[in-house]
Design a protein that fits this description.
single chain, 97 residues, Arc Repressor Mutant, subunit A, three-stranded antiparallel β-sheet, 24% strand, globular, alpha+beta
């Protein structure tokens, strides 16, 4: 039941525009009483058919240097903004949107 609420919360948060994993995690943990872990969030994002990976952004860490972090969007948002997307694999978004 907890993952159902998390999925609903994520989909409503992503309805406006794509967000990265860190933004989603912060939103979930600040709006839900018990929140979630980054591992559970990653599982929910990767296994939900209504949420797609739309690209990557670079994050810089103090100790580890730089690393990639995923950006996610709903299938509805992607189909409205990228009508030629075939539905397979991540799309690399244009940053001008």
């Amino acid at each position: 039941m907890k993952t159902v609420r998390i999925r609903e919360k994520i989909k409503s948060f992503l309805a406006e525009r794509p967000r990265n994993t860190a933004e989603i995690l912060e939103h979930i943990n600040s709006t839900m009483r018990h929140g979630t872990t980054s591992q559970q969030l990653g599982n929910v994002l990767s296994k939900d058919k209504d949420i797609v990976k739309v690209g990557y952004i670079k994050r810089s860490g103090i100790l580890s240097g730089g690393y990639d972090i995923c950006e996610w969007a709903t299938r509805i948002w992607v189909s409205e903004n990228y009508p030629d997307w075939d539905g397979s694999g991540p799309i690399l978004m244009n940053r001008d949107l």
